[in-house]
Design a protein that fits this description.
The protein has eight helices and four strands; from the N terminus they run βαβαββαααααα. The protein is of the alpha+beta class and 208 residues long. The chain has a four-stranded mixed beta sheet with strand order 2-1-3-4, covered by helices on one side.
Amino acid sequence: MKIYDYKGFPNPLRVRIALAEKGLLHAVEFVHVDVPAGEHKQPAFLAKNPTATVPVLELDDGTVISECTAITEYIDNHDGEPLLTGRTPKERAIVHMMQRRIEAGLLDAATAYFHHATPGLGPNIETYQNHEWGEHQRMRVVATMRALDGELATRPYMAGEMFTMADITAMAGMRFAGFVKIEMPVECTNLAAWCARVDARPSLAEAA
């Protein structure tokens, strides 16, 4: 397997954490895509992923899979022993529900803030910006942090009693929010405790 990514970006981090959790991090060949230089918009990469985003998984038979959720599904079920996406229909539904809420309200919103309300990746990449929209997304991030803090008052992890794909997305989102200087509200003590607990997992150090 090959993973095309840019190490350090939040979505590549999500897949690297999943690989580390499954013990597959060293079974993958990583191919660097220079996103700040615009390599993801060149024909060679667009032939693999027309949406021009990283990461992308390429299987040994040439099959190409993009989107973090799809890649994580494949990784998690590769050995027939899913750990990150749920085992029962109910578990899977809850994991996917929380993962999508977190992806949209935290990670995607923080990314929109970065691309629209800050210099982002520079004028050669940020060819369109809407500052007002970016600031709206910053407020959405903070609202999502507060909502997640409430969820974590009833359980240790985002989707229940186990660490899952939803937690991976949330940690990538929290780290990126910190990078773009969107602060967690001080009253979010449950979320802060979750961050400390998840940040201590070996997979996060391995994936960094």
